[in-house]
């Protein structure tokens, strides 16, 4: 028995990566449109109707419109449009109880790339009551330029972008609502993202003064223990020993995320997460969610 999957936006950055991860699987049959019809609404409606599951790899407005075309077809939306929407299940399998919700869901909102890293570091600490929900959280991060889709890729490839730049300077990054909600925070964090002149891979850091957390300095050791406990047995997320350098590209091509805790050995702590923005940050998690929804092995097609 095969599952029919339509990737709407298959020609885009995320869509192509999902296609590559599904190609060759004998439990999946791709419903595909050619270059001439991929943006034709009648052809897309027909593709939705043929599919058991559709994966939307579209800009937010197009994703909202696609949901209206999709009828009863189950959806995984890779865009930001439905991440905190009522009636959508948040597609982050690592959250407590979430795998069962994803298995049963009709509409799954795939977690954002920076949000994957941020929530993965925050949620174990808020659940363990190490980090209070009203704590003033500070996050920084860098992504490769593929994180900005075809438009940003083109800008870098024609040499029109700086080698490294900061953006979302007014604290309005589109992932903040999902980070606060699923990270277990009442107070929106400060988040400063950046883009580097390399294609893919990201590193995100959570900066903490452990002596300001409840329990004071003891928080430092508890941070790593809480992370290890949260991810014990997880197929893709690991808590690693800190090294001398953090390489945002270290896990490119994989669905893995590595979290490490470092600092001055005292109260000043940084927790860091490394992942591939196009892998674990987008297409890998979309495939992981698809696997859960169709009853396949959660790790099928993923490394
Ligand atoms: N890149 C990343 O790291 C991540 C991206 N995402 C999200 O995934 C979604 C896709 O992003 P990304 O792949 O980077 O973007 P791209 O710009 O690379 O791809 C988007 C694709 O959608 C197509 N498209 C646009 N409008 C329509 C429409 N009305 N009907 C059919 N196809 C349409 C585009 O066509 P055309 O080729 O003609 O432009 C393009 O092929 C976005 O919502 C993004 O936020 C999520 C996590 C990470
Ligand atoms: C480098 C870059 O521009 N990154 C994008 C996020 C990547 C992305 O599109 O993520 P979601 O679809 O998961 O929101 C940004 O910061 O807006």
TrEMBL record:
Enzyme superclass (EC) = oxidoreductase
Q: Which CDD domains match?
A: AGPR_2_C
- For this protein, what reaction is catalysed? N-acetyl-L-glutamate 5-semialdehyde + phosphate + NADP(+) = N-acetyl-L-glutamyl 5-phosphate + NADPH + H(+)
Source superkingdom: Bacteria
Give the main localization category.
cytoplasm
Q: Which UniProt keyword terms apply here? A: Amino-acid biosynthesis, Arginine biosynthesis, Cytoplasm, NADP, Oxidoreductase
Q: Where in the cell is it found?
A: Cytoplasm
Signal peptide residue numbers: none
NCBIfam families, from UniProt?
argC_other
Q: What does this protein do?
A: Catalyzes the NADPH-dependent reduction of N-acetyl-5-glutamyl phosphate to yield N-acetyl-L-glutamate 5-semialdehyde.
The protein here is known as N-acetyl-gamma-glutamyl-phosphate reductase
Species name for this entry? Jannaschia ovalis
Q: Provide the gene name from the record.
A: argC
């Amino acid at each position: 028995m095969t599952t029919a999957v339509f990737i709407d936006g298959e020609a885009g950055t995320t869509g192509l990566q999902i296609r590559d991860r599904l190609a060759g699987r004998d439990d999946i049959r791709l419903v595909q449109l050619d270059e001439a019809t991929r943006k034709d609404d009648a052809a897309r409606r027909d593709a939705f109707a043929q599919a058991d599951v559709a994966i939307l790899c579209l800009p937010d407005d197009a994703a909202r419109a696609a949901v209206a075309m999709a009828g009863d077809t189950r959806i995984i939306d890779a865009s930001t449009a439905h991440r905190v929407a009522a009636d959508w299940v948040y597609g982050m399998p690592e959250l407590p109880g979430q795998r069962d919700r994803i298995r049963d869901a009709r509409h799954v909102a795939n977690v954002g790339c920076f949000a994957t890293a941020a929530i993965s570091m925050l949620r174990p600490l808020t659940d363990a009551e190490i980090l209070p929900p009203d704590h003033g959280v500070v996050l920084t991060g860098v992504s490769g330029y593929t994180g900005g889709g075809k438009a940003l890729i083109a800008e870098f490839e024609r040499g029109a972008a700086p080698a490294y730049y900061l953006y979302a300077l007014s604290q309005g990054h589109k992932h903040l609502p999902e980070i606060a909600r699923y990270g277990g925070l009442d107070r929106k964090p400060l988040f400063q993202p950046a883009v580097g002149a390399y294609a893919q891979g990201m590193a995100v850091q959570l900066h903490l003064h452990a002596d300001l957390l409840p329990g004071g300095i003891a928080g430092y050791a508890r941070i790593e223990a809480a992370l290890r406990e949260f991810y014990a047995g997880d197929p893709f997320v690991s808590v690693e020993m800190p090294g001398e350098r953090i390489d945002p590209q270290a896990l490119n091509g994989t669905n893995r995320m590595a979290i490490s805790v470092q600092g001055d050995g005292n109260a000043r702590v940084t927790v860091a997460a490394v992942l591939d923005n196009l892998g674990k940050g987008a297409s890998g998690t979309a495939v992981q969610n698809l696997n859960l929804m169709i009853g396949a092995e959660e790790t099928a097609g993923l490394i």
